[in-house]
Each structure stands twice: as C-alpha cells, then as structure tokens.
Request: fold
Amino acid sequence: PVQTNEAALNGNGVQKPEPRLNDPDTLARQIVEKLTYSIGKNPASARKYDWLRATTLAVRDRIIDHWFESADRFAEEGGKRVCYLSMEFLIGRMLRDAINNLGLTEPVREALARYGVELDMIELLEPDAALGNGGLGRLAACFMESMASTGVPGYGYGIRYVHGFFRQEIADGAQVELPENWLVHGNPWEFERRNASYEIGFGGKVSMIQEAGRPARQVWRPAERVLAVAYDTPMVGWRGRQVNTLRLWSAQALDPILLDAFNSGDHIGALVESNKAEAITRVLYPADSHQAGQELRLRQEYFFSSASLQDIIRRHLEENDNLSNLADKVAIQLNDTHPAVSVAELMRLLVDVHGFGWDEAWTITRATFSYTNHTLLPEALEHWPIHLFERLLPRQMQIIYAINAGIIREAAQEHGYDDGQVAAISLIDEGNGRRVRMGQLAFVGSHAVNGVSALHTDLMKQTVFRDLHELYPDRIQNKTNGVTPRRWLMEANPGLTGLITEAIGPGFLDDIEKIIEIDDLADDAAFRERFAAIKRQNKERLANVIGERMATSVDPSAIFDIQVKRIHEYKRQFLNIIEAIALYDQIRSHPERNWTPRVKIFAGKAAPSYVQAKEIIHLANDVGRVINADPAVRDLLKVVFIPNYNVSLAEIIMPAADLSEQISTAGLEASGTGNMKFALNGALTIGTLDGANVEMLEHVGEDNIFIFGLTASEVAQRRREAHSGRSIIDNEPMLREALDAISSGLFCPDSPSRFHSLVSNLYNNDWWMICADFKAYWDTQRTLDDLYTRQDEWQAKAVHNTARMGWFSSDRSIREYARDIWKAGPGQAG
Ligand code: F55
Reply:
C-alpha cells in the first residue's frame, strides 16, 4: 500500500501544488516547462505538434484546478447529479473551447507569440473528437458544455470509440469512406481511471436459486465477461465556474492474455478473446437514420449502459446507506433509445444484486430515468429480434417480459384495453418476427419523455407514442433544442462577438438572451455596414478553404447559400440540387436578366449503406463539375460540395452563410440545430415549417425568415392520397427540364443512367414531396435574389436574426430540463 503522510496531505498544504497563474509570463514559462519535461523537446527544436501538446498540457493544469474545486463544492453542498447517457458525443476540438471558457485566449496567444508560435495555427492541428454521427451527438456535446456553464452537476457517460465517425473523401464525385484515427498521437485531454472498471457479462444462463431463509431469486451466469475501463475528460463551463466530467468506457479483456492458454502454447487462442472484447468499443456505427441491427451494436449499447449504471450505483453507495433514495440523488437522461436497455439493467441490479422487491425497484427505476426521442422515422426506431436479445442478455429479456406483463395488466384491468390496444402499447412487436421495441421500453421506464421541438413533441403524441400517451397523458413534454453560444458564436465568430461587445457591452457573454439589445441597431446604417463587413470577412475565409481544398474559386460577393448536414432523402438536398439545375437552365436561356450571383454550398456525409444518399452526393458533385466549368453562367452560379463535413468545418461555415437551407419535408426533422447556428451568425433561413424552424419563425418574426412549402399535416394528407410527382412534373416546365437534364446524362456523360432511379422515384411516388414543394421553393429563392440586391434590407434582417436567437441557447434548454425533468441544479431543492 502507498504510504501517505496524512498531516502533510490535509494539514499545512505541503503537498498542494502552487496555484496556476494566468498571466502571459507564467503561461509562457509553463508551456516551455511542459515542452521540456513532459515532451522532451527544447523550444529551438520543437515542432508545431509539440507546441500544441505543451500548450494543451499547460491549459489542462488550470482545468484540473477548477475540476477539483467543482468536485469539492459538490461534495460539500450535496444535491442531485445528472447523468447523461449517450452513445454519441460529437465534441470536435477542445483546446479553443477550453481556453475561451477559462478566459485564457489572449494570454495564451501572447505567451505563444513570444516563441513565434501562432495560437490559431496550432489549434488547427488538434484532431476532432468525432464520437457521433450528427445532430444527436452534437446536441450531447452542447448539453455537456451548457451543464457546466449553468452549474448543473452533469456527468456524461458514453463510449470511447477508437475510430470515430469516418473521414469522407470524394473520388470522381462519389463518397469514399476512410477510417478515422483520432487517438493515434495520444489524447492529452483524457485520464484513464483503472480503479473505475466494471465487469460486463454477455450470454449464458439464468437460474433460480433458493438459499435458506431468503426468498428465491434469479441469478445470471454470463458465458462471457469483458471489462469496462473508464476514461475521464473534463468539460469546462463558461468562465471555468464549473468543470464536469465526461466518462467514456473502453472495453478490455478481463484477462488480456489468458495465461493458461498462453503458457500451454496457444498464443493465437489467447489473443482471440482479447480481440473480441476490444471489438466492442472499436468503432462508431455510422448510420443515423436506420437501425444497424447487428449483434455488435447491441453489445455496445448494453456494455456502456451496464458500466454506467454500475458506476452510478457504486458512487451512490459511497455516499448513502442504500439505494432506496437513488432517484433523489441521481437523474439519468437516456439520449434516444440507444441506452434504453438501461431500464432492464437497473431493474436487474436492484432486484437480483441489491435484493429489492420488484415493485419498489420499478418505482425507483421510473423515478430515476427520463428519455429524449429524436426521430419519428419508422426505419430509425430501434427494435431488436427477440432471439438475439435473449441469447445475448437472457436475464434482461426476462425482465422486459415482466415489465411488459405489468404494463399490460394495468392497461387491461384499470383502463379496459382490448387486445388491439394492448398490442399497440406492448414492448414486444408481434408483427414482424417478434422484436423488443426500445422506444416503448424507454417510455414506460421513465417518468418523463420529451421531444426536441414543439412540433416534434406534438407529432410524437399523435403518431409513434399515441397509445402510450393515452395511457400516460402527463408523461410527454417538450424541450426544444439549443446550441451553445460559446462554441457557435464566440469561438466560431470572434469578429461578430467583438462588434456586439462594442455595441452593447459584454453582458450577453454571460446571458445570451441580452443579445436582443442589438435588435434596434438593425436600423443603424453604420452598424449594419460593420455587421456586413464581418460577414464578408467570414465569407472570404470560407472561400479560401474552398480554394485550397477543392481548387475551385468562388466570389465572396455572391450569395453564400449553404446546406450542410447529414445527407438524407428527408432533408432534401436533392430539391436544392434540382433548383440549382433549374437556375442554370434559366441563366443560360435568359442571359439578359439581372441574375443575383449565388454560390450553392453543400457538405455532409451519407451512411455507407444508404444508396440513395450516396447518389445525391454524386449528383451534387457531378452538377458542380459541369456548372462551374460552363462559361455561359459567367460566375453567376457555382455549386460546391466540400468533403468531410465535421464540427471544425462547421465552425468555419456557420459564420460565412448568407442563406441557411432548412428544407426538410415537413414533419420529418425532429428539430434541427444547424438552423440555430446559422441564424445566430446572421444568416437568413429558407425553410419549411418543420422542427425548430417553427419556433424560429415565432422568435424572428415572419419578415425575417423565408418559409415555403407544405405543412406537416398537408404532407400527411398527400401521403394518404397516394400522391405522386408525375402530374406536377408535367405541368411545371422548369422542374421537368431540370429532371430531363439529369436523366439525359448531361452531368454524368460517362455513365448516363447513373441517376435514373433518383429521378424515377419522383415520377412514381415523390414520397419526400420534392415535386410538390418545388415551385414554392423556386419562387422563394427568387424573392431572396431580389432582396439580396437591397443590401440594407437584407443586412437589417440578418441583424434581427442574430439579435433574436438568444432563446435557442442550450443554456435555456438545460435550465428547462433541470427544472421540469431532473429537479437538479441551481435553484432546485436537491
Ligand atoms: C444516430 C444513430 C441512430 Cl441508430 C439513429 C439516429 C442517430 C442520429 O444521429 N440522429 C440524429 O442526429 N437525430 C437528430 O437529432 C437532433 C438533435 O435532437 C435533431 O435536431 C435532428 O432533427 C435529428 O434528426
């Protein structure tokens, strides 16, 4: 055992490190100290990566001071913890965020400048932590930052994937997926916690055991066991007031090299087991819109759910006598259904391991969990085949049957449900090969269930959860998404942040809703000009990126019309491309007209197995190649697809947009969060009445947003009527000519039939209402062309957008979760 001198540890502070000072002198000295003693380089021979690492380590020391303070404060004050369980945390880079939140940006810049090193340059060397697919994962990252910034004691729990979201390259117009390897040079932000590790079982058998004088109980003897090892990353809140922890689990073989096998000469056999264990946390699944359905995915879900719950329980029992007050001390938020097996696992831990009776365990479980739904798309809802579930998690399957029996009994006895109504709420889908419905499991195991925008929450009540909502009418509530203004305004757009600070003072940095104070400056010509000048600089920066990465030149005085997000049919990048083709036709047919120059910018990744989404990427690239090379359009139109969209690229793109494309088929986009990032940075939105666009309209006012197209209920109506595109195409020449151009092979002469199935889907079915919405979209785009020529008007609207987006801060979202769902954080009894 380690010998410690208690007196020295606690008494006179002999072993306490000196406090870290934040002046440039001290920072410069300590960066060089890290360079020398942690990295083993002297300043003269250090490479840029060495400087990044040394700077990160010096900044990390300061974070650790705040981290310990936060832990001590929590230990003193007690209160309730919030555990955010998410398969995904799409964080991006961490250095800029950390130093911004600690107020160190200028001192660090100055310290590095003394050695001739540019902060902005070394920041770019940090790899993105891309442990997520898109909106859901990025929301988890914004929420972690906002919990730390608003003083909620939040613990993120997730998976430490060795390979995050794949890197995208475009080869001959098509997406190519390459493995991502963010950990190759080590990760200075994480701390391995070997003492926090738990065994996770799979497979095996359940048997009833009867011990003398005790009630009979079920014991699960797993056939396989792996170890979950914790890695902690500090999450720094605004002004460093609070530092929370993101705990990510890594899988390891219990016995990395099975010594028996190894000693008996079976080297290969010994390593097979460790490979199988470590496979669990090897890679992030890249599908965001359909269920993977693979065994490895279910293993991932259970692995991180069980590890997190065991950790939560261990911590609770360190501070409390028993688990009966768990729900008073911990709130567990399930980020979609990916961790929904937690409901069964907590029941198992309470009943089988900690000896609770079923009913009390169920009360505790329900009071502890809450669940956020992020999609209504049927193909994205998780449902696991029963045979697979039972083979991998036999005890959890039993528990799910028991939960189901209880719910059905309640529905039948207390509410008189008939067989049809029972089938609708059952946790087991008997329809297609018997499956466990994870959404239903998460719903019944939670005291609160939320959607992520007002419209989405309403639709949840009417569609996917209609029957459960009828049974539990108080359970569903709305929590509209938000984005953190630190990363998405201050860090991404220092120019605009500086202008706003000059105009209204720095108060909005601590309370983003104060940004409304620039609203009246929309009428101030001098302010508008400075606002526009900053936009222009940000567009030049993006134009440079496009020039460097793709050797395409774009003119920053054109409208930057941007659609960046995952590629999906319901998000309708195809509609945007068709509009580009129609515009191309019109410019060539009517060269005499006063066209407003436009650059259409796309970026986003397709799931590797999503054929149509990959065709859409191919089309965008093929169309861009033809249009950009055609002298007839005289730079009036460019179409650019920027490869490898990720958080870092988003930080350059969001501030550079004039126009934000939020054009999903109404009723399909749960919320959207890119819509908020763009508008906060002064882009106007062209969008449908979908997701949070509806609430953005309410906040910015109808003069400042450009809404078009069918509403969600009109879409539902048309689908009931078996709508197809054919008659619309026949009556709309611009649309027909654009589709004919695609079908003719104009954009893909090497393979003219490449896009035939994309086009024939429109004729035969038009499921996503692309034909139905084309004309309204076209007309709205032309209104915007016209508006852009009146720069005063356009810029006034842009100012209103920035001014009125304060409500869409994730600080507001988090305060609502804390107040209505978690009953935790500042101002809660705790
Ligand atoms: C990831 C994995 C699976 Cl198996 C299914 C879905 C996803 C995923 O990434 N979903 C996702 O990003 N959903 C989005 O969540 C955002 C945050 O709430 C919403 O803004 C957005 O509308 C929704 O599509």
